[in-house]
Design brief:
The chain has 315 residues and is of the alpha/beta class. 26% of the residues lie in helices and 28% in strands. Bound molecules: NADP nicotinamide-adenine-dinucleotide phosphate (NAP).
């Protein structure tokens, strides 16, 4: 099969399209003929060697966590899928492998692809939407009437967070650059702030949840603008954010939480229901062919992507 691989940690130029042996599913895994994958900052961070302790020192490495495609084979214990099913999902862990013609995923990391979505649209959803769902619903306790601030609302996670917060019944304020104000409003934001003029954390504001998607704010700065039981949720696993999460986790008031996205079928099916209800749509910055994966990663690394970069894999 054709796959994007790299032989050492470093720049996107290390990525190469190569013929690799097809993966073999274990008893709990599904082999998927990948029709589309999508890229995330996680792929670039791992390629740069930022998570070496988890990603290890063996090469060549493949990349990619999001996928949509068609079931090619199933392991002996797989009960939920059969050959020919259309699926989408996200692999857990630090050994990505979905930017390839074939990929294996655990049965619980996949769900039936929403029929209304193309493979490209379905591949654009999992990692970022699951992050937004788990950050807002599980950590931020966002519910009907919650006042939510989403900082950095125009990127991969942000565009999903706006839509999911609205679907949870929240009133949503966003920050983005000025050029993206109308774009984010089009996703459903009630109030849009240009972060060069206002971060939304000024005195007089009172948020039930501040979701720091971009990750350049901090709990100590957000705390004065949180409601009594408000929660600050960040995406960045820095030592300070981990410490703030641990020290405030059991406090009755004002908590800091770090989201660590976890793929599971129940949540993928929540996303499918939101799609079916018309509450969630894929937001794609660009679709690139497999051979142009390095350029796709380069675009993400500008930190200016509007939504997702999707890799289309022709059959
Ligand atoms: N912990 C987890 O489980 C988890 C899961 C998913 C993602 N993450 C992390 O979450 C972060 C966001 O991921 P993503 O996929 O949304 O990234 P992304 O798509 O690369 O984000 C791009 C967006 O960042 C915005 N941005 C750039 N500079 C900014 C600034 N100074 N302030 C606010 N926004 C700014 C840009 O908006 P403008 O052009 O409008 O400025 C752009 O739309 C990454 O660090 C990623 O690694 C963590």
């Amino acid at each position: 099969m054709r796959a994007i691989v790299y032989d050492r940690y470093g720049a996107p130029e290390n990525l190469e399209l190569r013929l690799m042996p097809a993966p073999v599913p274990n008893a709990n895994e599904v082999l998927v003929r990948v029709r589309a994958a999508s890229l995330n900052p996680k792929d670039s961070l791992i390629r740069k060697g930022k998570f070496k302790a988890a990603s290890g020192g063996t090469f060549p490495k493949l990349l990619g966590y999001d996928l949509a495609g068609v079931v090619e084979a199933v392991g002996a214990n797989v009960t939920h899928f059969k050959v020919g099913d259309n699926v989408f999902g996200m692999k857990n862990g630090f050994t990505g492998s979905t930017v390839a013609e074939l990929a294996v995923a655990n049965e619980d990391e996949l769900a039936t692809k929403p029929a209304s979505l193309s493979f490209e649209e379905a591949a654009a959803l999992p990692l970022t939407s699951l992050t937004a769902l788990q950050a807002l619903r599980d950590l931020g306790k966002v519910t009907t009437g919650s006042r939510v601030l989403i900082h950095g609302a125009s990127g991969g996670v942000g565009v999903m967070a706006v839509q999911i917060a609205k679907a949870l019944g929240a009133t949503v304020t966003t920050t983005s650059s000025e050029k993206n104000l109308d774009f984010v409003r089009g996703l459903g934001a009630d109030e849009t702030l240009d972060y060069t003029k206002s971060t939304g954390l000024e005195r007089g504001r009172e948020w039930a949840c501040v979701f720091d998607v971009f990750g350049n704010q901090r709990f100590s700065k957000a705390s004065p603008a949180l409601a009594k039981h408000g929660v600050y949720v960040t995406t960045v696993p820095s030592p300070r954010n981990v410490f703030d999460d641990l020290r405030t986790r059991w406090l009755p008031f004002k908590k800091a939480r770090l989201v660590v996205v976890k793929s599971n079928r129940a949540d993928l099916e929540v996303l499918s229901k939101l799609v079916a209800a018309g509450s969630l749509r894929a937001v794609i910055d660009r679709v690139v062919p497999l051979a142009e994966t390095a350029a796709g990663q380069g675009h993400i690394e500008t930190k200016r992507a509007r939504g997702k970069v999707v890799i289309s894999i022709s059959v």
